[in-house]
Design brief:
Elements (H helix, E strand, L loop, with lengths): L2 H28 L5 H9 L10 E8 L1 E24 L4 E6 L6 E2 L4 E5 L2 H27 L8 H18 L5 H17 L4 H9 L1 H17 L1 E3 L4 E4 L8 E2 L4 E18 L11 E6 L2 E17 L5 E9 L10 E18 L4 E3 L2 E8 L2 E6 L1 E5 L3 E6 L6 E5 L8 E5 L2
Helix pairs in contact: 3-6, 3-7, 4-5
Length: 410
């Protein structure tokens, strides 16, 4: 393209832009608009007196005089006061099953029964051996000389044993030396005939037979597993006919009517807590409800790693809402400040780094600067600036100014 043609096109576009601007200016001037006086009139129509008639809806609570309870906060896990993992003492096949997950059982109630036929046979054999040993004992008793416990040698050894026992109990002789001397004197006493009865029982096998009978009877009793206390069955998954081994876990049994919570309290706060102090318990999974408990134990030991002391709270579970394993928040009462002027915590505001509240006087909100003291999660102590029975605003106060008109909503 030639330079002359380019120059002509540029001049044409500039001319078009100028024409558009001129037309736009003429149209703006020609359109009707408000005069300066009209605009002033619009402003004059605003009634600033009406602004004073705005009424704010608020809610109030009274200033009270009462006791302020201070608390120490901690977190913990709920556990049953009585909780036991049941295990089997013997091996066997399950023939009786009277429980299931979550079943409530009574103390002494049969829970699980094992096949006891083998243990019954062993018990009968042991009983027969005891009878045989008693017969042998009778024959030996006739052949063995009479008791000689009253002979001088036996009395002398018996007195030495008594003195040895006394020295050991008073700490005058160590255990190693005591055992060696006691064995020596016992052996001498046997040869005097003073322990005739023990000798006959051992020689006849009666002592061994009696011990075997007791062991067989105990194993037979182990085939019946009963509840050691009232409780609820948990962590259970056995079936009838299943074989279990000695030491195998069967289920858990826990009594949830009374629960305990172990919490760690910082060593700086532990001196404020004593056995018997009241504790409030909040459970995040149960909203809108609190529970009450008491401190039943304060450990004498401070954990060197966490610098905390274990405190145990007991809580009754009459409603059965609490379950072992639940996470809880615990508030342990540490002090009781009596006869203090108190306001709800939500009433407090801070302006210019000074605490204040709004009170209602007639239909007006008045702010008052106050001095505050101790506080808990519900109330704040007021040491200066308020009197009991005044009504402080607890809702709607954040947008208020001094002397604002308010309407109290019930």
């Amino acid at each position: 393209m030639k330079p002359l043609a380019v120059s002509m096109k540029i001049k044409l576009w500039v001319s078009i832009v100028i024409v558009v601007l001129v037309i736009s200016t003429l149209l703006w001037v020609a359109l009707p608009g408000k005069s300066e006086k009209q605009r002033e009139g619009d402003t004059a129509n605003i009634n600033y007196d009406k602004l004073d008639e705005i009424v704010f809806d608020v809610r109030t609570k009274p200033v009270i005089k009462g006791d302020l309870f201070l608390y120490i906060n901690a977190n913990g896990i709920v556990r049953a006061t009585e909780e036991l993992e049941l295990t089997s003492n013997i091996s066997g096949v399950i023939t009786t099953l009277n429980i299931f997950e979550g079943k409530e059982v009574k103390k002494g109630e049969l829970l699980i029964g094992l096949d006891d036929r083998e243990y019954e046979l062993a018990l009968n054999d042991a009983r027969v051996k005891v009878t045989d040993s008693r017969v042998e004992y009778g024959f030996l008793a006739k052949e063995t000389p009479g008791d000689t416990t009253n002979n001088p040698k036996a009395r002398e050894i018996t007195e030495r044993i008594q003195k040895l026992d006394k020295d050991f109990n008073e700490g005058n002789i160590n255990e190693l030396k005591y055992n060696a001397l006691k064995d020596e004197l016992d052996m001498k006493l046997i040869f005097t005939g003073a322990k005739r009865e023990e000798i006959i029982q051992n020689k006849s096998g009666l002592t061994t037979a009696i011990n075997a009978y007791k062991r067989a009877k105990l194993n037979y009793e182990y085939s019946k597993i009963s509840a050691p206390f009232n409780g609820t069955v948990g962590d259970f998954d056995l079936v009838k006919g299943q074989r279990i081994n000695a030491g195998q876990k069967l289920c858990k049994l826990f009594n949830s009517s009374s629960l305990r919570i172990d919490v760690g309290v910082l060593e700086n706060d532990i001196t404020k807590i004593k056995v018997g102090n009241v504790a409030k318990i909040e459970i995040p999974s149960i909203t809108g409800e609190t529970f009450s408990g008491r401190v039943v134990n304060v450990s004498p030991y401070i954990d060197k790693e966490t610098k905390t002391c274990k405190v145990t709270i007991q809580i009754q579970n009459g409603s059965n809402k609490l379950k072992p394993g639940m996470f809880v928040k615990v508030f342990i009462e540490s002090n009781n400040l009596q006869s203090r002027i108190l306001i709800p915590k939500e009433a407090l505001l801070v302006r210019d780094k000074r605490p204040l509240v709004f009170v209602v006087e007639g239909d007006l909100a008045k702010w008052k600067y106050i001095q505050i003291g101790e506080q808990n999660d519900e109330f704040i102590e007021v040491t200066e600036g308020l009197e009991p029975r005044e009504n402080v605003i607890v809702e709607g106060q954040y947008t208020l100014a001094h002397d604002a008109k308010v309407r109290v909503i019930k």
